[in-house]
Amino acid sequence: MAEWLSNQIFGKPPTIKDLTRENDKAVRKAGREIEKDRRVLEREEKKLEAEIKKAAKENDKDACTILAKQLVALRKQKTRSYAANTKRYQKCLDDVTPYTVGRWIGAGVLTLFFLARVFILQGWYIVTYALGIYHLNLFIAFLSPKIDPALEFEDDAGPGLPTKANEEFRPFIRRLPEFKFWYSVMKSTTFATFFTFFDCFNVPVFWPILHMFKYKYLPFTHGKPRYQGHEDSGKVINAK
C-alpha cells in the first residue's frame, strides 16, 4: 500500500502488477473480515434460538415475536455473508483458470501424495478403487463430445457438406470442459486424502482376493513358485 501511495504522490503511474497485488490484498482482508463476521453471526443465532425456546416455555408471546424478528434479520445477514464468501471463492477459481499447466501439476502432486499415503499405510483400498473409477468416468466424459454425431446424422444418409447458411462448421465441444475436469479431480482427490486420516473408512476388501494374494494362487505366472520333478533314469523294470 505504501508503494502504491508513493507512486501516486510522486506521479509514477502504478503498473498492472501493482494494482493486482493491491486488489488481492484487499480481497484477502475482506475475506478475513467476512469469516470473522460469519462466526459472530453463528454465535448470535444460537443465542437467539436459546432465548426463543426459553420465552416459549414461559409463554411470553411478545418476547417470542421480537426475538423471532431479530432471528429472521440475523439469518438474512448470514445469507449475505455466505454470498460474499461464494463470490470470493469464485474469484479465486477465475484467477487460476488461465494457468492450465500449473493447475494440472498441482493435481498430479496431490494424486501422488494420496497414492504414496495409501502405499505406505497399506490400507484404504476401497477409497482408492472408488477414486480411480470416478477419475476414469471423468476422463471418458472429457474425451466424449457434447453432441453425439450418431444422433445428429440419424435421419441423414451420412455426414456431408452444409447446404444452408446456418449449417456452418462447429468445433469439437467436450461433454466435460477441461476446467471442470480439473476441478472435479482436485475436489475428489482432496476428499479421498481426507478419508485416509480416519480408520472408519479403511473398509477391508473382499477377503478371497486377499487370500489369493497371500497364497499366490493368482491367474498370473509371475511370482509363483516353480516345481521341478526328478529326472527320468530311463530304466525299465520287468515285473515277473
From TrEMBL:
Residues 27-61 form a coiled coil. It comes from the Eukaryota. Gene3D superfamilies: 6.10.140.1230. One of its GO terms (cellular component) is Golgi membrane. Pfam families: Rer1. It is a multi-pass membrane protein. It is found in: Membrane. InterPro entries: Rer1. One of its GO terms (biological process) is protein retention in ER lumen. The chain crosses the membrane at residues 101-119, 126-144, 191-210. PANTHER family: PROTEIN RER1 (PTHR10743:SF0). This is Protein RER1. It comes from Bemisia tabaci.
